Structures
1.
Amino acid sequence: MSINWSDEVHRVLREQKVRQVAYVPDTGLKRVIELVRGDKKMRAVPLTTEEEGIALATGAWLGGERSALLLQSSGVGNCINMLGMAIECRIPLLMLVTMRGQWGEFNPWQMPMAQATATVLTAMGVIVQPVADADDVGETFAAAARMAFNTNRVVAVQVAQRVVGAKEFK
């Protein structure tokens, strides 16, 4: 892999003219968050809980801007009720979901949501695009962005834990 997948995600955000990027701080998303924070054309918005990102995306869209939500799989459960609004109102929402509770996980609390993430998102009407290889993240994220913004849909790119790396308890 010659280019870091986080750099590819940032490139796509720029190409798609995403101006607001909401996130809950997370180690797996650290590089993407740093790139967004350093980009003068984007506003990085730290959240206290993931569902706030859906409200932010709605406000951004109503204000004429594109946004994206970066979150970990454990935060997907927090978003379920708010996703209904985005789906019913046809708010385009691009989500990057980094997985926990998969490859090499040490924390048993991450396991239930990891097993349910794609199923729960799909049940809500979210289009889920899984990625298991770092080399495919950029291309998949670009396709998901086009789909979200061209069709006013909620699209989530689900990045496998093997791509992000397993956290260790120290």
2.
Amino acid sequence: MGNKVCLVIVDGLRNDTARTDCGYLMSAVEAKQARIWTMQACLPTISAPLYETIHTGLKPADHGLLSNEAIRPSPHPNVFSVLKAAGKTTGVVGHSFFHTLYAGSDFNVFDHVEVNDPNAPISHARYYTMTGYNQANPTMPSEFDLCAQAWALARDYAPDYLLLHTSSCDTLGHFYTGEGREYRIQATHVDNALSQLIPRLRSSGYDVLVTADHGMNADGQHAGDEPCLREVPFIAFSDQIRVKNDALLDQRTIAPTILAMLDLPAPTTMNIPASL
């Protein structure tokens, strides 16, 4: 116990797509270097509410963030605040929403695109925005850029908890639907980049968890209760996760599980058992 932990959120990645198109991840499962489960996302299946669920252990109806348009600093105990209070360090490579939620202020791209401050709520961060995304150029920044940035944070600062969040599957899914070839191909691109990052993280003492916030439907949308929206992968490169292979995991267990992996007790607000 007590290893460093990296959580990878592949935004919008369906469970079935992960299993059919993410060859590196599934090869790791086949080689018994990792294990995979189906995880059920909470409702509504919308990104910002589920980022908050993943980090607080509360479903949206309980934490109160119910849409991307209502994003605000998290008022609840969360993975970042618990780790900060325990004197541990955190790092993020991800969407600017994570700064607004957990770094203590609204995001300003000119002030916050790069953060290195041991006294900040999130000590080390590289944020991106979706400004200028369009159908002609929907996938910037590249997956390799994001994975390289995550590796640089791990190599140079070794945060106890590192979050990597990529939006490209979600973006392509909105343009081409969750059943389009472009969406599936993008899942392969993400998987390819992770094949370069995860072995480096593992060799540096990180346990790595890979999941998604929600899936994507045939209309190129998400929010509702379809299985393709609620069923997401949960892949663990770790020997700390001991739940049975056929278990259906609850998304609310991610936060207390991360804290348990770092030898920290979960706050009482995370009242669902960790999935260990």
3.
Amino acid sequence: MTEKFDIIIVGAGIMGVASAYYLQKNNPDKTILLVDSQPDAGQANTAMSAAAVRNMFASTTNQLLTDTTIDFFRHIQENLRFNLALHFCGYLWLLSDYQFKDPSVQNWMQRMETNDISYRVIERPELQKSLPGLVAEFPDDEEASLMNLNPVDYALFGSECGVLDPSLLVQFYKEEFLKLSKIKPRFNLTVNKLLLEATPSLGLPGEPLAWQDKQVTGIQSSEGTFHADRVVLAVGPWTNALLDPVGIPSYVKAKKRQLFIVAASDHPQLEELLFTPKFSDAGFIPFTILPSGGVYFRGVPEEKSFWVGCGDKVGRAYKYNMESDDYNAERAYYEQSMYPVLIKYFPAFANIRPTNMWAGAYAYSVDAIPLVYEHSGVIVVTGASGSGIMKADAIARIADALYRDEKDAQLFGGRTIPSRSLGLTHRKVEIESVII
């Protein structure tokens, strides 16, 4: 079976489905086919996300991408009356005195002030009043010393940060896309390779030949061949698997990330921590990052639980291509690496086993800033470095502006960004240092 479309979008995660919406909205005469290997949109790495949103980044670029995206999410929920389960519970970085005074943290704070990113500094006495059961220092604790645990002296709190439900967010973009599109998405469809053809074709054996101009003209899939004038590739950690065979650069690599559910029900001290009201009107604990071990947790009041994760760095392998086993969560990792750190700072978690767990993958770029670029007929949208949800709206608008050859992408709220600034040849970004 062979069909022809104006645009084929490969990948219906949050960045793919948001791109589909803006491309259809701003190019209403174009036929757009959205495809994904999963049974529905947003069921791969988007569904595995901690689904937290923050504008507290160190780079001006990431601040702009996230700040405008979060503003749009607020607009969806408050003005368009589409529930995203968006709660501005905040982000809370717990820091030692040494960490707080580190030049990189001071520069981070200064750049947030310059770019009007809201945050405040909280010192230990207030933290101990606001976080039930927090252990802020470990005098004479040999075990804590061996574990390299930092004390808690300060925190940075961002009130314009929070959490949402990724399935509802994907549903919004998908429904808006379907209102505009005449083409039904194809799910359970595996893309085996991109089609690369000579332009123009001369009908010679072995085309495309080295001296010919070449362009990606579609996809070969489990349901046949589909041609398009342009292909948008939004497949995150699987980017290399599709770009490498046709020789197009991607500059991304993946890293496994895991989440573990710890129930607070029937554990009064843990439930008290979950529903601490001191930080926001949301009435539950902020997304909290501990000062040691990369451990963090998110409160989930609807299910009276915590999602606990770890942004481990050295020791966690980068993968050029993800394998099926990379999507299996490791209970032993929680028990041996995360749990010992967690209970030192918050003893209320002691002796409670996870009730569920899952794994996904971050697709990292070299500077931890997303990649949005066009190369040989493909618009590549990738490298969000674990923060695709919180940048998705801005990234999708940039992809659309690139398709329409617009100099600047118009982001929500009237701010703009050069449409090629996240690309390869005209890249103009800073290195991001605040990665979880």
4.
Amino acid sequence: MPNVIDRSGKILREEPTPAVFAQEHNDKQHAIFRAVFREMANPRAGTASTLRRDEVSGGGRKPWRQKGTGRARQGSIRSPQWRHGGVVFGPKPRSYVTDLNKKERRAAFIAALSDRFRSGGITLLDAENFDIGKTADFAALLYGSAKGAKKGPKTLVVYGVDESVGEVLRRVARNLARVAVTPAGALDVKDVLRYERIVFTTGAYDWIVAAFTKSPEGAA
């Protein structure tokens, strides 16, 4: 069960693990792989481009006659083995977009987040009166001290979609190399797996639980 802490790091209470995240999902490893593959592939621009031998300028004349020179026969100075020649099987503009249906994306996210719940990697932050203005104070909240933030677990802080505290969290976490901040709506499977610990504000936690407690057709 995740602990709820205040701005000083004091544990206020324990929250029960939601039923949707309390189950084991060992059979969803392939779904997690497919979800992460999609999340990493889709942003790729796919604009890398090289010139084939028929696209390189020049080379219209045979460099020397076929026989009698003692050299290997050559048909064009733009063949791949020549300097400035064409590229063999080089990249061309393409789309890396991979599709994954909504039901499988939902199952992968639930499986990944469930693993974080079971390993104790989820903490809740009561950000109702969050007034930390210094990075050192925020590091002390997450790691016990500013020095501990240099070697502590990689932490992702997630704030609610409609919470104004998001800008404050981004500012105080800006200089902490092992801390990242993201809105709940942008959280994906890749983020859940990348960070050892996830700190949800209570608003973000309620939003996530509500979104994934719905039926698969209504979930985000």
